[in-house]
Amino acid sequence: MKRIYLSVLFTVVGSLILIGWVLDLIAQNEYDHQLPTELQLYELIVQGAARQLDQFPFQALSEKTTALSQEFGQQLVLEPAANLALPSELQQDLTANGKLILQSNDGAVLFVALKQHPNMLLQLNINQLTPGNENLEVMLTLALYIGVGICLALWLLPLTTRLSILSRAADSFGAGKLQARVAPSRFSYIKDLELNFNRMASQIETLVADNKLLAESLSHDLRTPVSCLRFGIEAAIDTSDEQKRAAYLERVEEELTRMEAMLNAFLSYASMEQKAKTIVLQDVDLMKLLTLCIGEIEHLAIQHNVTINVDSHEPTLPIKIDGHWIQRALSNLLTNAIHYANSKIEIVVNIKAESVSIEVHDDGPGVPHEKWDGIFTPFVTVESSRNRQTNSFGLGLAIVSRVIHWHKGSVTITDSARLNGACFTLLLPKY
Prior knowledge:
Layout: H1 2-33, H2 37-53, H3 61-72, E1 76-80, H4 88-97, E2 99-104, E3 107-113, E4 120-126, H5 134-174, H6 191-221, H7 223-238, H8 242-270, H9 272-275, E5 282-285, H10 286-296, H11 298-303, E6 307-311, E7 318-321, H12 323-340, E8 344-351, E9 355-362, H13 396-406, E10 410-415, E11 422-429
Parallel strand pairs: 6-8
Antiparallel strand pairs: 1-4, 2-3, 3-4, 5-7, 8-9, 9-11, 10-11
């Protein structure tokens, strides 16, 4: 809004100054070319009287001036030049031209120098002049108003255009086209409003897509455990063998445990967007946080016979992040790498000009290139491309992507040049 206020103020004040200056030039030029006829007549009278006074000695000037005033019916005054206080520019004009006209709205004053008496000036006071060109004044006033109106119209044109674009995008979004966005423009007065609309639209689109995926995944993934539960319960009811009944009930308990874990994972991810509001950026030692993450999953690495090495030349690395969520993202990424690595994981930390990158390499089979685009999509798993089966619900990497997005960073996957497996790269801004 501040930008709009300043632009309106600049447009109005600037247009008034510019147009007023141009109109003043026009009016002055008109005046210079159309001096009122009566003023020219007065000037001729004074110059004629001055020529007559030049023929008399100084002692007779006062008497002759009075006589000329009565003869011409004008109030002629003989004034010493020393008594007239004029700016230097006007004094130069009087000296160069031998005459000077001072005009105001109430009348004019004419001064003519006496050639034979250079220290004396003949002065004529004109109390009232015939008004100038009133039509010109009206036209210039109208031109001022019209000019300011045109400037405001030109200022409003891009604003109304951007508001129309924003309105159409909002209508499209409300009609269900969730991809509707406002294309950015460098000359928009409402750039912040447009960016906020795009940000809101992206968040709503993400929420709708996640809810759709959640519903589809739940409906798909719950069918198998529900069927198993029904079969196990029916089998336990129908059998008279206590050992078989115990085995059936044990399988039912396992399926219930799996269903509970699945529901907890799905609901936890569904509520993550609300938790984004609790992000608190603080100075955290990234190397210390990484060591803590490795310690938490060390038992899992030992179970899978996987070693984890860290390649970094920085003993400490302060960075402004939310330690809790970045720790969770790193834990998910390292857990994913442990599940699919054969025997080794390497973590490479690089410091760049405005960011920090964390590369997680593994020596597993890698991820096929055609799966790269969807690997960070929630509820998507790529076990078919790996050697070892897991009980993942397809949320680990999706959580990593969401947390890094909250920190205005990025996460990508490539082939590992170090270990010939997969390489996940986290890029976090230093702030």
